[in-house]
Design a protein that fits this description.
Largest sheet of chain A: 9 strands, antiparallel
Radius of gyration of chain A: 16 Å
Structural class of chain B: alpha+beta
Distance between the termini of chain A: 43 Å
Order of helices and strands of chain B: EEEHH
Number of strands of chain B: 3
Number of helices of chain A: 1
Number of strands of chain A: 11
Number of domains of chain B: 2
Number of helices of chain B: 2
Shape of chain A: globular
Largest sheet of chain B: 3 strands, antiparallel
Distance between the termini of chain B: 56 Å
Strand content of chain A: 25-35%
CATH topology of chain A: BH3618-like
CATH class of chain A: Mainly Beta
Oligomer: heterodimer
Radius of gyration of chain B: 22 Å
Strand content of chain B: 25-35%
């Protein structure tokens, strides 16, 4: 097991089980290796921590938990980068933004495509898409006391 | 920044394999044609910058929020 620092303290991880981004994430091109960490509470969210920069960690989720029809098919070039034999073996993940009011949005416009076989990920920007970079969840009320309407989802 | 003046139908070559052509000038906008290898990412600047900004904001979260959100999302899902 290896150890790295995160904003939340020291983390132990298995170096054989990292997720690598050959091109980094958009705006974070130099950070290639991330450790995958499940949420402490059983749930739909998990996070990835940069091996190289303790300050950088992202919350991710499988967008199909919330948007059943969401599907991104990688092109040949993207398959090559991921080491995918077939586009069908590709999974999509969404970067989650936690806002100050504790609501969350999913970045459906820039999904992370990943291969569970090669453990490689690639963030892509969808062109000509109805999906937005700040998509609210359909009807989620994280704070029970809060009664005002959430923005309508697209 | 290199600034060039081009007319409709004229173009620019960048490196060995990227060609940019001014297709049409119309109503204050410029239609631009881009020929580039498939591996070259081409995006509208404001879209690209928005994704960078969104990624930056996505790094600002707290572990306590993650646990409570994760729990409440799972509860919702089971309803």
């Amino acid at each position: 097991m290896n150890k790295i620092m995160s904003r939340f303290g020291e983390i132990e991880y298995d170096p054989a089980k990292t997720l690598s981004f050959p091109e980094g994430l958009i705006g974070f091109e130099s950070l290639r290796e991330f450790v995958v960490i499940p949420s402490a509470k059983e749930g739909l969210l998990f996070w990835i921590q940069s091996v190289d920069d303790p300050q950088i960690a992202f919350v991710l989720t499988d967008p199909t938990n919330f948007f059943l029809e969401y599907k991104v098919v990688p092109d040949q070039n993207e398959c090559d980068k991921l080491g995918l034999a077939s586009p069908e073996d590709c999974h999509s993940l969404s970067v989650v933004t936690v806002h100050q009011d504790k609501t969350i949005t999913l970045n459906l416009q820039a999904p992370i495509l990943y291969s569970s076989e090669t453990c490689r990920g690639l963030q892509v920007i969808l062109e000509k898409t109805k999906y937005e970079s700040r998509t609210p969840l359909p009807a989620v009320k994280p704070m029970p006391a809060k009664t005002e309407a959430l923005p309508a989802s697209g | 920044m290199l600034v060039l003046t081009r007319k409709a139908g004229e173009g620019i070559v960048i490196g060995d394999d990227i060609r940019i052509t001014v297709v049409e000038l119309k109503g204050g906008g410029v239609r631009i044609g881009i020929d580039a290898p498939r591996s070259t990412k081409v995006h509208r600047l404001e879209v690209y910058e928005r994704i960078i900004q969104e990624n930056r904001e996505a790094t600002q979260w707290d572990i306590a929020d993650l646990d409570s959100l994760s729990q409440s999302l799972t509860a919702e899902k089971k309803l």
